Each structure stands twice: as C-alpha cells, then as structure tokens.
Amino acid sequence: MENSTDNIVHEESQRELSEILQIRRDKLKALQDADNDPFLKTKFSRTAFTKDVVDGFDTMEGKDVSLAGRIMAKRGMGKAIFADIHDDKGRIQLYIKLSDVGDESFAEVRKYDIGDIIGVSGSVFRTKMGEISVHCNSVELLAKSLRPLPEKFHGLTNTELRYRQRYVDLIMNPDTRRTFEIRSAFIRHVREFLDKRGYIEVETPVLNTISGGASARPFITHHNTLDLDMFMRIATELHLKRLTVGGFERVYEIGRIFRNEGMSTRHNPEFTMIEFYEAYADYNDIMDLCEEILSSAAHKLLDTYEVTWYGKSFDLSPGWERLTMAEAVLKHTGLDFMSFESTDDAVAAAASIGVKMPEGKAPSWGDLLFECFDQRVEEHLVNPVFITDHPVEVSPLAKKKASDPRLTERFELFICSSEMSNGFSELNDPIDQKERFLRQAKMRESGDLEASMMDDDYINALEYGLPPTGGIGIGIDRCVMMLTGSSSIRDVILFPTMKPVE
C-alpha cells in the first residue's frame, strides 16, 4: 500500500510540475509574440549592487540607482507590488507602483514569476516599516525562469540533488554560497602568503607518461595523436622538484589532482592540492609554514582560532604539538616501537592490540609501526598535531634521518582525525632514490596499483643536483571543510563526482 500511495503522490507531483512548466513557457511565448523576447536582451547597465544600497543608505537615500537580480519573493497590494531581488552581494526590496511604471509595464510585472531575472531603476528610500527599498520607475525582464525554484521555506534540502544541481543550491541556500566564498578566500590567502615570501607560482602537466609523486591509483587515458596511454596526475611533486633543480628555489602550484580510488565523505576522485617546495629548508621549516598558513587563515577568515568540525571543538592558535610516529603510538597504545629488538617483537606487539597487516605482505618493523599508527592512533588526534619521522618503507620520496635510517624526515598534519598535509625533507640522493623507485616498481609488479613507477627522467634531474629542500602538499578541500565545519567533501566542491542518473 505504501508503494502505491508513494507512486500516486509522485505522479500528482509530476503532473503539477508539468503544468507549471507549461504555464511558464506560455508566458515566454506571449512575450516573444509581442516582440519582447527577454532572451534577446544582451546587456543591462547596473549602477550598484544591493549591498551597496543597504550598507550605504545614509548617503544613497533619495538617489537614483539601477539594480539587477533574481526575483525571490513577490506580493501584490492592489496598485502596488513588493518584490525581493537577490544579486551577487545580497538582497533588497522593490516597491513597484502602477502610477510610476504605467499600465502596460505594471501588468507585465504581475505576470513575472519567482526566479525571473529583472533589471530595475528607481530611487532609494525607507518604507514606513523601516525596510530599505528601491521605489522603481522602470522594470525590465532580462531572463525568464522556465523552472520553478524549490519552496521558499524548505529550500533545496535533498542532499544528492544539491550536489547534482549546484546552481539551484546556490540560489536557495545562503550557507552554500558562504562555503564557496570561504573556499575562494582561503585559496587567495594561501597565494598571498606564499607570494609575500618570494615563492613563484607555476603550472605543471596534468597528463603524464608516468604516474608518480604519491602512493595512489591513477586514472588512465589515451592520447590519440601519439597513440599512447597516459596518466592523469596524482601529485605535482616530481615536476615541482625538477623546477627546484632548475633554480626555482621557492615554487608552488595550486592544482587539480586525480586519484582513481574509493569515494567517501573525505575523498573525491578529483580534488585540489597546494604543493610548495623551498630550497635550503627542511621539514621543520615547512611545518612552521604549514602551521602559520592554517592558523592565520582561521583568524583572518573566521576572526577566531576556535573551530568546530565533526562536532568536536579545537584551537588553531599557533604552537601546535609535534610527536614522532613512535611517540604517538606509545602515547595511545602503550607500545614502544623504539625498544623492540626484532621484527618478531613488533609483530607480536601489533597482534596484541588487534592490528592487521595487508595480506601477502611480509611485515617489516616500519610497516608495523605505520599500521599501528594508522589503525589505532589516527582516530584520537583531534587537536592539531604534526606526526613526524615516518618509516622509510612508506616514505619513498623523503630523506632518511641521519640518526636512525629506519625513519625519514617526514611529517603529516592531523586535525580532527583527518590528514590535512604531508611533507618532508626531500630525498635528493639520486642513488638512494633510484633504489626506492625500484622497490616501488617491484611492489607494483606484484599487484600494488598504488605503488610508484620508475621515473628515469626524475633520477636524471636529481643527478644534476637538488639542493637540500623541504616540501609539502596540503589538501585545499579538507582545509575548507574544516574552516566551514562541513562534514562531507562534496559540500566544498562545486561540482563533485556523481554517478549519472539513469
């Protein structure tokens, strides 16, 4: 019975929608028959935005303005009509009186629908109710909305539909617009931060013959002219370090990255990352920069260091904790990896807390340390913390620690159990790098599709000499999620990857 009832309601809804669509098309046809097709209009001379009028009322009262925007509300009172229009900056009320615009224009305004885009001219005033408004002397239809907007008080609430029809989401939900304004402001902040420190912004290839720079499964495409399979980039790292070899000592790129992996609330197949590299710096210097970028962004964009994300509150004030991976495992599990004398001791310890190793892989001390951290520690990291000194087995591009060659000068930033960045003192020894690439290539031959490929040209570049260099990749999307308190990465990507509707 429930399915039958749902079908009846759906069919009635579809019939009602079809009637509305036809009515709006009939209105458009009438306008076109009267040689007044709004879609033939190419320009409207706007003199101000709604926010300019509202914020500057004291100086603009009584003055003439021309505004343009979308009708979001409309109500008639005999020989007068009130309407609200929204533009890029905000909203304002319009007062349209029959005696001011004339019979013909007033009759047309009565036929306008919610969602129509209009241009108006008139004088700024305040109504008896105290609302700043524009008293219109002319109204012009600039674009006809042929589809009705969602009901005013409920908006576009279907989450999947919001992602598929982001244009409607932006019209109806001010919070969505605010999220993407913060995203834009954050990217602008990162650029300004690095530019002031002498970094140069560059662009590197999206299509590559080798997949490298990260441990991830790539997308594969085909270049018809060259008859060559190519990989969409999974990182910008190796090209940026080539540029550091070439003499660009401070270089960065903000770019789209593509990884053919699982989707979740924290993962989208294409996402945006900032990577930057600084010659004669190490991973400690890069951690300092990373902390300063994010803490200053929170203070600048949110006017506070206090942030709430996933229902948890934390403080982004400078002075973030730094723990080695072994220290973090000891703190949260009680296992002291630095005291184990053999791999067997590490295997037994990991098993004692239920840590599982990937099948078919003979674990090393470093593999076990990493898996203990990954499976038992990450979930506890709410306040910002840099986890440093990763095992060499999981860090093919990081420089080994001189004091312990089992470890590397690598760090990851975690906030609210989410990895926000990954950086290290870059491996600049071409012989060591080639050996690590070879190990990764063997892993790939054994079926690990996320392992790196051999990149002979990158080895060639290192042989010319890469200075001591620190580098990092920061996920732009996750940073915006944090700054906006968004629980899904799809909330901060304008057009997230979606399965097509059949």
Structure description:
37% of the residues lie in helices and 25% in strands. The protein has 502 residues and is of the alpha+beta class. It is elongated and about 90 Å long. The two termini are 26 Å apart.
Q: List low-pLDDT spans.
A: none
Number of strands: 20
Helical fraction? 25-40%
| Sheet with most strands: strand arrangement | 6-10-11-20-19-18-15-14
Rg of Cα set:
29 Å
Number of helices: 16
The main β sheet shows up as:
8 strands, mixed
Mean pLDDT: 93
**Secondary structural class:** alpha+beta
- Distance from first to last alpha carbon: 26 Å
Tell the overall outline. elongated
Q: What attributes characterize this protein structure?
A:
5-stranded mixed β-barrel; 8-stranded mixed sheet; 502 residues; alpha+beta
Write the layout of secondary structure elements.
Layout: H1 2-33, H2 50-55, H3 57-60, E1 64-77, E2 80-86, E3 91-97, H4 98-101, H5 103-111, E4 117-126, E5 132-143, H6 159-164, H7 166-172, H8 174-196, E6 200-201, E7 207-208, E8 220-223, E9 228-232, H9 237-245, E10 250-258, E11 270-279, H10 283-302, E12 306-309, E13 312-315, E14 321-324, H11 325-333, H12 343-352, H13 365-376, E15 385-388, E16 400-401, E17 404-408, E18 410-415, E19 418-425, H14 430-445, H15 456-464, E20 469-475, H16 476-484
Helix pairs in contact: 7-8, 8-16, 9-15, 11-13, 12-13, 14-15
